[in-house]
Predict the structure.
Amino acid sequence: MLLRKVRRRLSAAALLPLLGLSAACSDAESPAGTAEAAGRKPVATATRGHAAPLTAAELKAALLTEAEAKGFTITGSDSQVGAAAADPRAAETGEPAACLVLRRTPSQNAPERGESASAWSIMYLGDGALWPRQTVLTSYPVDTARARMAELRRAVDACGRFHVRNAHGTASVTTETLPVPALGEEAVRYRTLARMKLRSGDLGYNYALVTVVRAGGVIASVQTSEVLGPLSAEQVKGFAPEPGPDEPMTAALAEKMSKAAGA
């Protein structure tokens, strides 16, 4: 049974790059090693009197444990100093380009964000779950974090439909703004549904449900994504996944990272 579950998750992991997720942590028996040990230099700290951005180690400590993320199994976590290195294989273009922030914000690897440090984890709801939840924490000077959230809000409002192209294919993406509880100092929640055309010729849909919370200079995101395959017009019209059981986990993450940020 365990082997079958692992195989199913590994098959799903092959599609994770389409969703901005990493397969590296999908079924690790223990958390992945931190990229902070790779010799990367920390980004400069204090800015105009604000407290220094949290370090990679502090962000990783602010991630939820399995005891805190009740009902979820955490299969891996990691952290790194500075922003991700640019990878041409993972590059995306968008039309309008400003809408790419909707995919970049909850991604593990987004060189354009310019964070001081980041940490992330992959978790599954229950033993039979195939598709993961991903949590990502990024730290900035406080003014920069506020600007990042303002940029995200503008994109959520303006990007009712946009187009994406990457190494895997193209997608036409629709965006909906969703109500969000009072979390941290400010929070945004949105849902995207992408009609994909892969280079292999396959067609289908995938969705992402994203909650983003800021506290001080830390931004936390929780993303649930799933590849759905082909959908009829009626199925697309009626498709409206909600956070449901993610709400307590998201609230616990927001509270823990707010304490770490001193907000």
User: Anything to note?
Assistant: The two ends are 44 Å apart (CA to CA). The longest strand covers residues 186-198. Residues 133 and 224 are 5 Å apart (CA to CA).
